[in-house]
Amino acid sequence: MEENNLQCSSVVDGNFEEVPREMAIQFKPPLYRQRYQFVKNLVDQHEPKKVADLGCGDTSLLRLLKVNPCIELLVGVDINEDKLRWRGDSLAPFLGDFLKPRDLNLTITLYHGSVVERDSRLLGFDLITCIELIEHLDSGDLARFPEVVFGYLSPSMIVISTPNSEFNPLFPSVTLRDSDHKFEWTRMEFQTWALYVANRYDYSVEFTGVGEPPAGAENVGYCTQIGIFRKNGGKATESCLSEQHDQHVYKARQGLTMLPRLVLNFHPQAILLPHLPKMLRLQVFTTSYPSLQQERFFKLVLVNEVSQQVESLRVSHLPRRKEQAGEQGDKPKDIGGSKAPVPCFGPVFTEVEKAKIENSPTPFCVGDKFFVPLQRLLAYPKLNRLCANEEMMRSVIADSIPLSSDGSAVVADLRNYFDEQFEF
Amino acid sequence: MSGRARVKARGIARSPRATEVGRIQASPLPRSVDLSNNEASSSSGFLGTSRLSTNDKYGISSGDAGSTFMERGVKNKEDFMDLSICTREKLAHVRNCKTGSSGIPVKLVTNLFNLDFPQDWQLYQYHVTYIPDLASRRLRIALLYSHSELSNKAKAFDGAILFLSQKLEEKVTELSSETQRGETIKMTITLKRELPSSSPVCIQVFNIIFRKILKKLSMYQIGRNFYNPSEPMEIPQHKLSLWPGFAISVSYFERKLLFSADVSYKVLRNETVLEFMTALCERTGLSCFTQTCEKQLIGLIVLTRYNNRTYSIDDIDWSVKPTHTFQKRDGTEITYVDYYKQQYDITVSDLNQPMLVSLLKKKRNDNSEAQLAHLIPELCFLTGLTDQATSDFQLMKAVAEKTRLSPSGRQQRLARLVDNIQRNTNARFELETWGLHFGSQISLTGRIVPSEKILMQDHICQPVSAADWSKDIRTCKILNAQSLNTWLILCSDRTEYVAESFLNCLRRVAGSMGFNVDCPKIIKVQENPAAFVRAIQQYVDPDVQLVMCILPSNQKTYYDSIKKYLSSDCPVPSQCVLARTLNKQGMMMSIATKIAMQMTCKLGGELWAVEIPLKSLMVVGIDVCKDALSKDVMVVGCVASINPRITRWFSRCILQRTMTDVADCLKVFMTGALNKWYKYNHDLPARIIVYRAGVGDGQLKTLIEYEVPQLLSSVAESSSNTSSRLSVIVVRKKCMPRFFTEMNRTVQNPPLGTVVDSEATRNEWYDFYLISQVACRGTVSPTYYNVIYDDNGLKPDHMQRLTFKLCHLYYNWPGIVSVPAPCQYAHKLTFLVAQSIHKEPSLELANHLFYL
After folding, report:
1. Which of B345, B380, B402 to mutate against chain A (most A CBs within 10 Å)?
2. Which CATH architecture has domain B201-266+394-445?
3. Where does this protein have compositionally biased stretches of type Basic and acidic residues (chain A) (predicted)?
């Protein structure tokens, strides 16, 4: 049994507030998970690059989304700083992320602040989610919410979820589902509001929900109602980012760098005095993930894959002691794979890939040195994916892996220490 | 020179830190207590006591340790157990002063920093209860942390015990919080203790605070240390990554709370377990793949890709595939493939891979049975090095080269760490809210004790450098050598030529050192281990004094099978030499000299001596390590000098299962050693000094309660009237402090013979540091000595100098070594038994240094 699982189910992944204690109706998976899964599916489908979660709470949704390879910027905003701080660290890259870096850069930033303040750092997003958020806003904030989120931030897509009050009678003795809820809407109320907002800011909206009602009560609708808003006329132009009206109001703190003077360097316009105090507000947390877009990690991965492939070819090239009997050891021979024992697992190639590998230059031996042409390496799908051409491969690996004098092949000693250990 | 393990044996030519990055640690490291990091879903796989050492090292911060803390109480923590043992107060002669006097004073910079806090600083320990009670520790912590009453206060909380640096107004504080489900939870915070800064609990909390701080500097805790994975160093030819980092700790030295930090590296392999297995399969072929694979992998620590956890591989389940299902906690069945896709968005590409099995100890419940976790090889990265890798000289050299840091390089790293702590706003905030202030780096005064003369047969030589006197003694005759008349050389056809030329050389150099070597019988054998053993069985008769084997390859089986047979089944001294070693052009003379010296020792000869002012002194070395094959077996090696000159040694090696058994076998050994002494000297030794190595954290108590009494009773029983006086000294090669001398604005290694016995030592112990090894390019690490029992009542100065003298007597290296010779011999013996022989060597060899 996988261990992580044991932990999750006891505390449902940190979402303690959702641990159902008295609820008569229990959702499986729990309702909050269904909501997050809903967002995740949407992300999988639309592959947004920049995603912000307003009212991110303890950042559970962000943690779920960060594994998505398409996202490059993930932002969380919440008014409760303690919560951001408390779980914020868990958004940092795992140790494994340094060993197996992502393809694309990813930055995760948490801001402390109100969702109804304009902040230029949230401009140009592909998706903004407001999961169980609006019901916590008082009437003033609720009134300002559309103008800020739809009008000012104006992302390509917005997802808003909120309780469906028609479902509430199915719970025992519940008027509002949370003491901090300012209201809970019926489907009609939510849809009226949503359609009005969508209309006003030129979005189209589609309604759905999660949390199926129990049999016999289908008419109350989903427990959580969801509106998906899409901006009419395609994606937002990213140019809004470069506009001069930077308005940074969320409190934010650099988690990694030392002092905020860096911020000044990045934003020359911040020198304008009126903006300065706002600019110096700190983020609660920010972290950058290692990725193949970063030279250091790209090199690490490429060098690694090359050494592994060379090693694999070298080993299969070694004459085996038992088979060797009368055979000449140093004779170059083709190692298409027929001779090597069939491993019970390991990479499996398609016919096309196989053909590509077989048509590439073969490895060869000169004396006690073993040569693998870079062209051969490029034929392997894993390496081909990383590296488009020989020139690029050469320049990246040259100072880590020995190359032949003309630079066209990797050179290795035919035999090494470990070979002796495996002679039987 | 025997092919293997030569590097291990001597004190030079090897970066002292090289062992540190390796996988094996003889001493069980204490588990970390981590109250702070309650939010991170971290774990450490503890698998029962027998494997504590490896696991603790690699368990990533134990998030559950807090509850352990709660259940077991503070006193049991290994980290702090040793500190509560005050041995010095029982030793009258050092109660007032434990410092030596001889030698030249030298000013030293350390890696220790003052940690300042107000005089009246106190820690307040509270107990927190919840009504209704909450099972989830995470929820408990969340509720307490988010309460306004406690925000902005420095706190450490594990779900039950709360530490504050500021006292709450009331002794009992009642708070209530509401969960988001609208439930009201009452929290009662009750003051339990007020702790002065000297309390061991405070030290624990200080350590927690610093762990928090290092995390804020974007470092990751692995085991007890912190690493920075964003600045990896690569060794592509060996598929290794090294993460730089620090070992840190806060503790009391002589009356002062100090922060210490040392550079450390984490070795990671740039391959997943699946990649490792695939490569292995290509090598071995299918026939013996599973067996080899298990042998290679079991016991290794892996890091999983999808969380920050480490697991040890306890087994491989070849029958389970990623497409199989398992039952989740909620009872639903799911395949591994689907689980990883759903949970982590990871696609498992290889559906035929087997599963790694790791034993987990159930959370928050100490006595429940272990649970199994299945891990997918594709998602696990290997950490550390296999035994095989550590025996690869090239690989270890590459690692050493990367990790070697000059004293000034080390000093720069330290300075940067301190600077980061002080400049990072989060880190500084953390320190300040606790009322702590980071102070200056400690400087202290040590002494360079006088150098030693080397006594040869008819010559007293004052070496140019104690690091290596091979040149100084080249023309001198060794003290005593038995003539070698009947012996065998085993070699293959290929190596016969090299064997002959080597033999000529050997006889020449042996002759000049006074060691007569007659012509051996040369036997040609086929190139496989079995053929070597067969030939030995065939040709060794009772007259054969020594068997030399010219090994065609480095393959471990050769060495192991020969040593096993000749150390226990048919006890004859043996000398293995790699053919490759003999092929080194221009090195033949020095290689032959070294081998001649080893052979002399194996036949019972004596090479050199130093002046020992004490008459009738027996020195004893004890070392313990784990058997390489069966890790629950402990190999105890004991070595005792059997002449007053300290040039002849008696040894025993015993295999045991528990620490108390170790104590018992010490008695057996000691009695044997005293009998031997009596036989050769017709009296018992007046004094016995035992150097005990291989002591892990938290074992001091066992030593004092079991081992010392056993040693005492064997000494008492051996004599009817006055018994020998005994001292027991714990020797540790690994210790936190580092010392540098400051020269022309840069720091350097202190000279050989530097002794430190103040400030960096501990008030409650009779302890000192001695530098008796050379690090040519790296930073030297001092050896730490703790005298835990002392009837002899030698002046501290004499104890220090005697220890220094003993570091000159290791015959495998013509120079000073990092520990006293008896310890190094004991280490060499246990290493041979643990790695190659796996059973007790024959007592017939006990009077010879057959294990060199």
Report:
1. B345
2. 2-Layer Sandwich (3.30)
3. 321-336
